Amino acid sequence: MTLVMEGRSEGAMREAGYRYVGHSPDRQEALEKVTGRARYVHDMELPGMLYAKMLHSPYAHAEILSLDVSEAKALPGVKAVLTGRELPYLLGLYMVDKPILAQHKVRYQGEPVAAVAAVDTRTAAKALSLIKVEYQPLPAVLSVEEALTGGVLVHEDINTLDYVKGVFFPQPNSNIASWHKTIKGDIQKGFAQAELTIENEWRLPQVAHVPLETHVVIVQADPYSPKVKIWSSSQSPFAVRNLLAKAFGISRGDITVVVPYIGGGFGGKAGIHLEPLGVVLSRVCQGRPVKIQATREEEFNQLPTREGLRGRVKTGVTKDGKIVAEEIYFDWDGGAYADYSVNVGRAAGYAGAGPYEIPNIELHSRTLYTNKVFGTAYRGFGHLETHWVIERQMDLAAQALEMDPYEFRMKNLLREGATTITGEKITAHSGCVDQCLEAVAKEIAWTGYQSAAEREKAFKTGKVRGKGLAVLHKAPAMPPNTSTSAIMQMDEDGTVRLLLGAIDMGQGAYTTMAQIAAEVLDMPLEKVKVIWENDTDKNPYDWQTVASKYTFMGGNAVIRCAQDLLRQMKEVAACVLRCPVDELTHGNERIRHIQHQDKAIAFKDLALGYAYQNGTGIGGPLIGRGVYMAEGLTNLDPATGQGLPALDWTYGAHGAEIEIDVETGEIHVLKIASAFDVGQVINRKLAVGQVVGGVIQGLGSALIEGYKYSPEGRLLNPSFTDNKIPTAKDIPDRVVPIFIENPQRDGPFGARGVGEHPMISVPSVLANAVYDALGVNFYELPLSPERIVSGLARQKE
Amino acid sequence: MCAEHEHKAAQTYQDSGLPRVLLNCTVNGENVSQWIDPTMSLLHFLRHELNLLGTKEGCGEGECGACTIIFNGRAVNSCLVLAQEAEGSRILTVEGLGQEGQLSILQQEFIKEDALQCGFCTPGMLMSARALLDRNPEPEEEEIKEAIAGNLCRCTGYYPIIEAIKKASEREKEASQR
Q: Any idea where the 2Fe-2S ferredoxin-type domain is (chain B) (predicted)?
């Protein structure tokens, strides 16, 4: 049985034959990773290093009446004990709402209330057991419904919290951390035109990222100056630097953030997490390095997760299947602190209706504070969640119309000439979602839903099969003025060293950037070396490694960087060869004349500047620079959400075939075909890796994963025993990645991002297939065997 | 090697105060003889006493497989084994897979098939695969899945790993017939 087909490409064929772009070179760091020599922060120890541990709140919401740390402090080997009392700081990316350690009250079970630094982890753990805390439990807000009533406030000081104004919209005296509205057309008129209205409510729980390396930092903070050095398993070294500087009122120049190898991120290591605690502990310990490594339980229960969501949608359609109006309420279970979840809410505002043309829409996306583990970015940033709602709703609309859901989607998909719900015009170069849907429908041999009679017949065999379809879109969720940069230096043997701002956490960014550099310079890939360890003191700036933006933005920066290097080489070569610059070209690691090919200088002879035979020098060491800043994007209108939020849209579609055991309710996935219009594949092997890995992460969200709480708000499953992720035995028989390549005119070689997209709409496509198999609709995730069996039982009644 | 480590105090680890025990074992073909705290885990011994940092800790509870090593021919979670239980044992870690600067066939196939992304689960995954191929040189696909089911990977979706193990099995068979 073949498990994965080689990713194949459909659509426009490239005219140019590329030397590296579109090929499948091995990842640059593979050798270090298969020999166990790749060093993660997890592996690092520094001389004199101390180990920190945190004490957590047992309550979801409680006042801290007293905290006694005297016995802990007296324990030999303990170097520091800190509580929120000593740390009057608030941090936050967008809402400045989160203390380093709880101050006065705790807002979720698992929130750290005290921290100890000691000579070893056992001493630190023992010290924690000596800390006495008295709590006064408060009523907890544990659902979006409770949050919306506002009877209990998670942040009683919401009216005075600092936040990014004009972009986020906290509501006074409420649990609404931000309320985004997208209003286009006139929904009153739209619903008046509708011949059929379909209204549903959908839900999904919080889900954890589960990087195999838990969050870990080592911090060395000079007690005599503001200088801080941090080694972190982070996707966002420059964001860490920025947010730390803001929180502590120190200069960016005093902060160094170093990121070696990182053992998975998936959005959970974006932003700032354990770093501030490390800073204050190290400073109290006279600048000794302090290591904080989250336990697996803390990874689930203290560090952030994906938001839960309740989505309510009302869709108005005509009898021939055109969407004429839609009203959507997304209510995000954002947990105790806003972190990224307000930005997830914002992204849902402009992308949450899916890749459809909807003339009249009113979309409300509200990020709510609750007394649960707080939410953050997770691969696809709100899109798996909103597409769970929309791509199920589209199937239900088709069911109500008694129409093939393929036909229904085809009638309404965004195409050239259409406008998005924020007023952006889709062009011939925006990518084609219809081609993605067509490709996956063909791959799974889609012929429409089976009939009730066919279902009944299959049911008697005990195993029923079903097929489903779903589409998706996503653009990078980022500020309109996001930027990145690259620096390239050449050594005297013609080797190019490339310094980037982004982090390669396994997605293969550095390998694809090396390919792009080698392609533009037309030189051997083996001679392009990307400097691995990212250090904010040495590497050029990048906003954060998130949002599937780096192939596009970093690729463009690297192209410009390589062009800058070539321009410098040609300027010197023009003097030496005594010809105009514009008569020079390059190839085979040489700058040469376009006509007289023997008039040439090797790259290596220009690397440090050219030396004439008599020793006279000209030029100097080559240093190329390249930057890319997002172009033409705007903030969204606060009242209507109109504007240009999208650098590039990557469209996609999944087709799935499943088999359900009607006795046990277990879903066996036979096949998932996944197509994405990536514009141009840069590294085929790595792109396939993103697709199959992402699809399996989506499968986890669809079938098994999700946080469970006790009625008091205690997380019941903070371990791999109770919060399973897919294993090798849970994967579909086949995953078929398909790449559509309609080039993006301003993307590097026409490319768009695809890192996050594969997991979006996987839950929806599977639930759509479940409907085809059973004739039963499911409105909540995960599609666990219990849920399937009880859904079947309800249907029998 | 032994002398060097006898005097090195493991920083993350506080002595339990119990009398030390002598541990004699073979790690990656090298004889090790060392006095250790009887409560120390084998994972801790490998990482912090022998500085074999390729073996990772992902959960500390035997649920994720990142700490998998080969212990007397069997793949085990080293976080669940006390170091003193390793008395007289043969241990293989990821550092012992390649020989004299040459990658093993299995490691080569992991690279070719891109059976890794972040790389954190990779050492444990390689050891589970190695133990499988040692006891069953031509495993069926289901047997491969079974053998690595205790090794969690959040990046790859497992397909390229399964493919790499299949390819390694084929190539090792060819190599043994030569």
A: 21-97
* A40:B95 CB<8 A: no
| C-beta of residue A64 within 8 angstroms of C-beta of residue A106 | yes
Which residue bears the tokens 């990482």?
Answer: B47
Distance CA B126, CA B133 (A): 10
- Residue A312 is assigned to a structural domain of this protein: yes
CATH number at residue A379: 3.30.365.10
The answer to whether residue A675 is domain-embedded is yes
pLDDT digits (tens, 9 = 90+) for A603-625: 999 999 999 999 999 999 999 99
Residue B126 at interface with chain A, using a CB cutoff of 8 Å: yes
Q: Which residues of B touch A209 (CB under 8 A)?
A: 154
The Cα–Cα gap between A352 and A386 comes to 5
Pick the closest to residue A706 from A457, A384, A462 (CA basis). A384
Residue of A nearest to B96 (CA): A35
The domain total for chain A is 3
Asked, for residue A548, whether it belongs to a domain, the answer is yes
Residues paired with B171 in a beta bridge: none
Phi, psi dihedral angles at A312 (to 5 degrees)? -115, 125
Answer CATH for B105-177 from 1.10.520.10, 1.10.150.120, 3.40.50.11540, 1.10.510.10: 1.10.150.120
Angstrom CA distances, A447 to A322, A406, A494, A774, stand at: 21, 9, 57, 17
Q: Express each pLDDT in A379-401 by its tens digit.
A: 999 999 999 999 999 999 999 99
Three-class DSSP category at B53: coil
Among A269, A291, A313, where does a domain finish? A291
Question: Is B12's Cβ below 8 Å from some Cβ in A?
Answer: yes
Say whether B14 and A27 touch across the interface (CB within 8 A).
no
Distance, in Å, from the CA atom of A369 to the CA atom of A60, rounded to the nearest integer, reads: 12
